[in-house]
Batch of 2 targets.
Target 1
Amino acid sequence: MESKIDTTAFSGWGLDVRRPLIIAGPCSAETEEQVLETARRLKKSTPTQIFRAGIWKPRTRPNSFEGVGVKGLKWLKSVKEETGLLTTTEVANAQHVYESLKYGVDMLWIGARTTVNPFTIQEIANALSGVDIPIFIKNPVNPDVDLWIGSIERLQKCGISRIAAVHRGFSSFSESRYRNEPNWQVPIELKRLRPDLPMICDPSHISGRRSLLQEVSQKAMDLNFDGLMIETHPDPDNAWSDARQQITPEQLSELLDHLILRKTDPGTNGVLSKLEELRGEIDRLDRELLNILESRMRVAAGIGQCKKESGITILQPTRWDSIISRYMELGRSKGLSDEFIRTLFMAIHEESINTQTKIMNE
Ligand code: PEP
Ligand code: MN
């Protein structure tokens, strides 16, 4: 890492207050040796402060390894005693909470499949009443900021004062280079609505494969995330869960060495005025874009009127297909990605259809 950057995100957490906070450890606790070896190697070669290991594993399909259960909590205790690392594990019901507290786990995390369910979150929040333990809340599997915030609020109402949000990406049906789509605008929106919460990124579950971890971690740092949760295993290829995305502690060290940490404060050496000039230009172009969009919708209204008078349907599918492919080709020649052009024109088209529908039904 280029340099450590001060952050106040975790003040009150009793942690080293520099960015990024590192949470690392295996997807699942498998054996006592595997857990302890991971912790020792993390301690030796990385700035990890918090050791993670799943004890109860929420698996998408049955007949997969579902975690070692309570006996793994003793191994976490040994990790803490031997290395001094703080420990965290995933809880998905009240029983998990009671067992974890009994064995002295320092912090808890709530998984994506749990955050979606207000009943379960409430059950966990109730089980935690009177115990002000730090909690990491992963985003729900679907990109719903309100649901994420709702879970956070349920815990806060039960007296939890130290909460960090963990961005682990979102399920999607379509083919993607990610295991879980990052949809960065969702955590950015959470940060806008709840600037008081530290934000952690979990590149492992976003990426689903080792080769993307560096890129996703860098992006998180460039978006000002406060920490990273990265799955590490002494022998990743033979991990009992999430083998393709885990890395060794030494590989984590290398990943962190390559991270570039940029400052949030632009400083005074002329950067600010340059930025201001560029932002002014962006604002001017954005206003121009809006004017063009206004004109475009006026033309769409004219088309709607014309279709109404001649009694034809709004949607002319073949025309739409040819427009999109023509514009993607044109966009490519201007260095604009297919994905961007598709999203942009889908939105414009949708608005056009809405405008025309209104006219048809007037
Ligand atoms: C995990 O951290 O191993 C895990 C199951 O995470 P998620 O809830 O993000 O799927
Ligand atoms: Mn995992």
Note: The chain has a mean pLDDT of 93.
Target 2
Amino acid sequence: MVVSNSTHIPEKIRQIELPTVDLSLSRSKVSELIIKACEEFGFFKVVNHGVPNEIIERMEMESYEFFNKPVPEKQLAGAADPFGYGSKKIGFNGDVGEVEYLLLSTNPLSFSNNPDQFRCAVRGYIEAVRKVACEILEMMAEGLWVSDTSVFSRLIRTVDSDSLLRINHYPPLVLDTSASPPPCHHHRVGFGEHTDPQIITLLRSNDVSGLQISPEKGVWIPVPPDPNSFFVNVGDVLQALTNGRFVSVRHRAMVSSEKARISIGYFGGPPLNAIISCPKELEGDNKNRKSIYREFSWSEYKEAAYSLKLGESRLNLFLN
Ligand code: GA4
């Protein structure tokens, strides 16, 4: 199917079944499936993840409650510069979308103006998803035959990891049927095309669609929602840590449903002073054993990523 985006460039929407990883399978099978998915798409769905339902439900309920409040009350969470409540404006470079959100740092929890129950729900949720993220990162290292199997996971497990939690609330799509000419496409951009700068993202949403991934320019694969699963994507730093074997997937969120979408993203990032370089087992097999990317610190990379527009690529600024 061909649809148009706001700049009227034709886009192809492709319906492809995306990889699913069942975490209850044997460890070797799981790591094999994860490696394949990360090399092919930089993206997979996780089922049987072991995060208790109560933790997820509580988090979702508190999120609904937060976004149902009047705007002045939501603003008590502070402005999203960098942590707090934001609406429409994304980042610092003029990007906008049909979304309101709460952006929180996970270490320590930047969340002082909100009620205790919400704080507790967020804490419990972060702890649970971080655990799953660490397990996944360890199985990635195992599958890549890296001897230090916690080489990736310790970057997000440490207390000074620069990780984030983002709760997004996408409004329902309201079509102006009286518009003349009538609207030609039934979707709007909620959160524009981008890659995540960090190591790994675990995203969970209610049963409302919107997420799409782009394996190649102009091609979009809609990801059917599944409230019982997490969607995992490789971030830019993991692409660098794996010397380009894993791909940091481009993705976006569209507003295309008559129901509001709530998504909760955990972005596992390294400490600001961490030096990003791939383990020796993943260095090139060329004569100089050179890796594709030069060494960089997460703070250096973050600064570059945050100074660009949403859709702009940053990892290629760090090529060797
Ligand atoms: C994408 C992933 C996370 O949501 C985020 C986003 C951040 C923001 O909203 O402030 C960024 C975006 C994200 C990447 C490029 C920069 C920074 C907006 C933007 C234009 C919180 C993050 O870490 O990077």
Note: Residues 222 and 247 are 18 Å apart (CA to CA).
